[in-house]
Write a structure and sequence with these properties.
Blueprint lengths: L5 H15 L9 H9 L2 H6 L4 H6 L11 E3 L4 H7 L7 H9 L13 E3 L4 E8 L2 E11 L6 E11 L7 E6 L3 E2 L3 H18 L2
Antiparallel strand pairs: 1-6, 2-3, 3-4, 4-5, 5-6, 5-7
């Protein structure tokens, strides 16, 4: 049974992370520690996703295979090759509403860089630094079509090389405000659900 709200799903993602050993018990509340001890891991797993999100995404979209690993290319070069367009006010509000619990940890601050047309967030957990960069891209073949992109750089303390990934949303029309804001909200939730 999926969670009934994003807030409930975030709570259970913390419980699941603690049960799997991905999160230190010092970084979570006593309530989360108690839940991790008293609820079976198989039951917790069902509550880590939100029913509305599951219903609104195709099954093929909800797989980690949508993330592409980038080999032999620096993160900054990848970002400069994918020039974004400006996010509008409604899209910025969506990012603002998704700050609580992004990547499973408290409140994340999404920073808007108008000069680069990017939204960034940096998260430090388990000695790993993850940098998320969101962009709105125009399709090369049809300039009336847009996609959201998320570029991720993972920096490990025990590895000299960084891992770089990216994923893209489905196409949308920038003029359709309700379509694009729903698409962006689902896209952020999908990335958040993987805990990459």
């Amino acid at each position: 049974m999926p969670a009934k709200s994003e807030k409930q799903a975030r709570l259970f993602r913390l419980v699941r992370g603690l049960q799997k050993g991905n999160i230190s018990s010092r970084k979570v509340s006593p309530q989360v520690r108690k839940m991790a001890k008293s609820i079976k891991p198989s039951s917790v797993k069902h509550f880590t996703k939100v029913k509305e999100i599951i219903n609104s995404l195709k099954e093929a979209e909800y797989t980690l295979s949508k993330f592409k690993k980038v080999e032999n290319q620096p993160f900054d070069q990848l970002l400069s090759q994918n020039t974004g367009v400006q996010f509008d006010k409604k899209e910025l509000i969506i990012f603002q509403s998704k700050q609580s619990g992004f990547s499973g940890f408290g409140k994340t601050t999404f920073l808007h860089n108008r000069n680069k047309n990017e939204i960034t967030a940096e998260i430090f957990s388990n000695e790993t630094t993850k940098k998320f960069v969101f962009k709105k891209l125009i399709d090369n073949e049809d300039d009336s079509v847009n996609k959201y992109a998320c570029f991720i750089e993972k920096n490990f303390p025990d590895k000299p090389d960084k891992e770089v990934y990216y994923t893209l949303s489905n196409n949308f029309n920038d003029e359709d405000v309700s379509e694009k804001t729903k698409m962006l909200g689902d896209f952020i939730d999908r990335i958040n659900s993987y805990g990459l």
